[in-house]
Amino acid sequence: MASTSDIKKGLCIVYNNDTYKVIEFQHVKPGKGPAFVRTKLKSLTNGKVIDNTFSAGHKIEEVRVETRKYQYLYPEGDTYHFMNTDDYNQITLQKEALDAPELLKEGEIVTIIIRTSDELPLAVDLPAHVILEITDTEPGVKGNTATNATKPATVETGARVNVPLFINEGDKVKIETEKGTYMERVKE
Questions:
Q1: Which fold has domain 129-186?
Q2: CB–CB of 144/165 below 8 Å?
Q3: What is the model's pTM?
Q4: Which residues of 81-91 are buried (b: 16+ CB within 10 A; e: fewer)?
Q5: Least confident of 54-58, 120-124, 147-151
Q6: Strand ranges across the sheet with 2-3
Q7: Helix/strand/coil (H, E, C) string of 38-49?
């Protein structure tokens, strides 16, 4: 059993007979009254995100997990196929297990969280950022760079991202996977 002082981002816990992953947390110590931990939990079975507050010292049941590197192979409807990079075993996961499936490029290496008690894959952690090629965007307008203006663009995986006006088709851009936002243009 763990307590609220052990809560950190990425921790998997059992709460209300379901397995959740902590995606955000904040320890709060108000001037008056007891301390508490405000959390945002993502269900690893159905993908729903809930807000919950634990009082300080509350006991939580931790799920023992291990992480393994997998290579993303291809999508098939709402299922996604991955291959273990060590022993080449393949697994399939539902779309709900992925945070941003629209940013996954074939061949990308991801980290899959697996429950150790029954070898059940729980969630997929994408890299912090991915590099994708722009396949469709409007041409940039010269001289309109004084403001932080952006335009919509489609990347090679089909995702839509807002990019600065100077980005053109064929450019490679770095995208932050957590927020799905443009970070920078990548030079070859």
A1: OB fold (Dihydrolipoamide Acetyltransferase, E2P) (2.40.50)
A2: yes
A3: 0.73
A4: bbeeeeeeeeb
A5: 147-151
A6: 2-3, 59-62, 12-15, 18-28, 36-43, 49-55
A7: EEEEEECCCCCE
